[in-house]
Automatic annotation (TrEMBL):
<feature type="transmembrane region" description="Helical">
    <location>
        <begin position="90"/>
        <end position="108"/>
    </location>
</feature>
<keyword id="KW-1133">Transmembrane helix</keyword>
<dbReference type="InterPro" id="IPR052173">
    <property type="entry name" value="Beta-lactam_resp_regulator"/>
</dbReference>
<feature type="transmembrane region" description="Helical">
    <location>
        <begin position="37"/>
        <end position="59"/>
    </location>
</feature>
<feature type="domain" description="Peptidase M56">
    <location>
        <begin position="8"/>
        <end position="280"/>
    </location>
</feature>
<protein>
    <submittedName>
        <fullName>M56 family metallopeptidase</fullName>
    </submittedName>
</protein>
<keyword id="KW-0812">Transmembrane</keyword>
<feature type="transmembrane region" description="Helical">
    <location>
        <begin position="295"/>
        <end position="314"/>
    </location>
</feature>
<dbReference type="Pfam" id="PF05569">
    <property type="entry name" value="Peptidase_M56"/>
</dbReference>
<keyword id="KW-0472">Membrane</keyword>
<dbReference type="InterPro" id="IPR008756">
    <property type="entry name" value="Peptidase_M56"/>
</dbReference>
<feature type="transmembrane region" description="Helical">
    <location>
        <begin position="196"/>
        <end position="214"/>
    </location>
</feature>
<feature type="transmembrane region" description="Helical">
    <location>
        <begin position="6"/>
        <end position="25"/>
    </location>
</feature>
């Protein structure tokens, strides 16, 4: 458990660095680049949060007896470390409880949302709406069947679900142009699998619930998800079309939202005035943003390297044995270890081997006048 918690804390520290940079640079530097780039940064940080460094495998001693010149050290769990282990056990259980609470709360909200919506949604069978949906699906090369529902008390259209996605829209009349843009927006969310990415963010946030910086990432992730979706919708729009699209976005503010959407739904609009302002500004001035292709490649490389380096740092240079080893006869383990070590020496080295006893009666193997190997009850090292 100690090693699990150390890996979690270490990963949390790593992801804190880019989150702090986002908070410091989002208005001065990141705002000059496309929302797509900013959204990709959020997704990469989220994935990195989930891929904590590899958890150590607790190996039985019998496996270690096999000849393996790559094995450099063997660390035993000592009975003398009881206080430290108890502390980390307590931290581990607190972390587990916090993680379960965050996930349970998210699941509860999701269930309540669907429960409230169950009796106030109506499947759309209007041929005009279905025709517009099929046309937009064809333009975006979406082949999956997606149903549309009208929902009372909803102010903004949204894409709901993770696998069997559905589009929900307020129970009010839209003209054909408004429907085209609304459905295109939600289909882009579907095509990018934004709801699944939001689910990953919930899992990552649950793992790192103790890190206050995760709240900053959650908010920025949500903002960039919607902004980048708008960006995709209007990328081929004329100035007039972009203005009309922005008006549709603003017009939904007039409707009262009595059914609050969950985090794992992609809404066309919400009531955060600052975000709506940013979306309108982004729609009307899309061309001024830099694509940042080279930065994108660099960020991806950093993310991949960070995962790889952490996993290899804890590779089989050190192997941790289970507690059952401690309770066995240490003398037999000692003899087996000494025999195993001497078999790795050359014939010339074997002639110079001497075994001396330390104050605690543990052996030290000397090759000539040089110490080659030593062993004691809490730590074994092989420095050849």
């Amino acid at each position: 458990m100690r090693y699990i918690m150390m890996d979690v804390f270490k990963t949390s520290i790593y992801i804190s660095i880019p989150i702090i940079l986002i908070a410091l640079l989002k208005n001065k530097i990141l705002s000059k680049y496309t929302f797509k780039l900013n959204y990709m940064i959020c997704v990469l940080i989220t994935l990195r949060m989930i891929f904590i460094s590899s958890i150590e495998v607790y190996l039985p001693f019998e496996v270690l007896n096999k000849r393996n010149n790559t094995l450099r050290s063997i660390a035993y769990i000592s009975e003398n470390n009881g206080n430290i282990d108890d502390f980390f056990n307590l931290i581990f259980y607190i972390w587990i409880i916090g993680t379960v609470c965050v996930i349970t709360n998210s699941i509860y909200k999701q269930i309540m949302f669907y429960k409230k919506m169950k009796n106030i949604k109506y499947k759309v069978e209007d041929e005009n709406i279905i025709k517009i949906l099929e046309k937009e699906k064809k333009n975006l090369k979406v082949k999956r069947n997606i149903d549309i529902f009208k929902v009372n008390g909803l102010s903004s259209p949204a894409l709901i679900g993770f696998i069997n996605n559905k589009i929900i829209i307020p129970n009010k009349d839209y003209n054909q142009e408004e429907l085209k843009w609304i459905l295109r927006h939600e289909l882009i969310h579907f095509k990018r699998k934004d709801n699944l990415l939001k689910l990953l963010l919930i899992i990552a946030s649950a793992i790192h619930w103790f890190n206050p910086l995760v709240k900053i990432l959650n908010k920025y992730f949500k903002e960039q998800c919607e902004l980048s979706c708008d960006e995709k919708v209007v990328e081929k729009f004329s100035v007039e079309e972009a203005k009309n699209y922005a008006l549709v976005l603003v017009s939904s503010l007039r409707y009262k939202n009595t059914l609050k959407g969950t985090f794992c739904s992609s809404q066309f609009n919400n009531y955060e005035i600052n975000l709506i302002k940013s979306r309108v500004e982004g729609i009307l001035d899309y061309s001024r943003y830099k694509k940042g292709t080279s930065i994108s490649i660099f960020i991806v490389m950093i993310a991949v390297i960070s995962i790889f380096s952490i996993n290899t740092m804890t590779n089989q240079n050190t192997a941790y044995a289970s507690e059952s080893v401690v309770s066995t006869d240490f003398k037999s383990i000692e003899d087996e270890f000494v025999n195993n070590i001497t078999t790795r020496l050359t014939e010339e080295e074997k002639k110079q081997v001497r075994i001396v006893r330390n104050e605690d009666n543990s052996p030290t193997i000397l090759v000539g006048d040089s110490e080659a190997f030593s062993i004691n009850k809490s730590f074994v090292k092989a420095d050849k």
